[in-house]
Amino acid sequence: MRIGLVGLAFTGLLSLHGHVAAETVIVFAAASLKEAFDENAKAYRARTGDRVVVSYAASSALARQIEAGAPADIFVSADLDWMDYLEQRRLIKASTRENLLRNRLVLVAPSGSKVSVNVAPGFPLARLLGNDRLAMADPDTVPAGKYGKAALESLGVWKDVRARVAAAENVRAALVLVSRGEAPFGVVYRTDAAADSRVKVVGTFPENAHPPIIYPIAVTASGKPAAELFLRWLGMPAAGAIFQKHGFDPGPRRSMSELR
What we know:
Blueprint (H helix, E strand, L loop, with lengths): L9 H8 L6 E7 L3 H15 L2 E7 L1 H9 L6 E3 L3 H9 L9 E5 L2 E6 L14 H5 L4 E4 L5 H12 L3 H4 L3 E4 L2 H9 L5 E5 H5 L4 E6 L9 E6 L5 H9 L3 H9 L3 E2 L10
Parallel strand pairs: 1-2, 1-3, 6-7, 6-8
Antiparallel strand pairs: 3-10, 4-10, 4-11, 5-8, 5-9
Helix pairs in contact: 1-10, 2-11, 3-4
């Protein structure tokens, strides 16, 4: 039987932690999680003594590194597909898998931009771009890019802009193209926009224009016991407050009565 993420008292976590020596937990996390996970790792170490080291990259790259034998204890993906990929290969402990967070997709521009965009069916993105390029994470493999492509297809504008996409290796790399003024617009997560004062949100994509943006989390097949304790911490109110501060919404999780 597995204890879900929701509703655990922190005293229980400390009790469990008392049975093991302080350890280092290695987390492979989607690039868009950086600020929130860095803060949670610091808070967790202050309370338990365990050190959490987080490696950030595109979910696709991280999943393939785990498949190749990289020593990760926890994987956090920015979409369900790459977690499914590892689960199908038995590279995660399926009983620990939870939907941790949700996010929104936005259109950003450099902070000095005066443009405001109504992101709706047929909106004139190609005209707004002119001869410039649209910064996105790789729409073929990276979750943020896949969500962005799905949204632009749904809104009927992908065909007009796909040849002008500047495909970046992850969503933060796409964000940098906009913040440096190398692209006039970019498709990123709401939380990415909040993390960089050099960009501003000029439009928000309708949630029904793309699949739900869900961040699943799981302990890897080789993950150490301390990894499950950190995973539980991430479902507690203190961790949730940190995620909320950085713009994330709680994921659609099971209740405590839905134990596997």
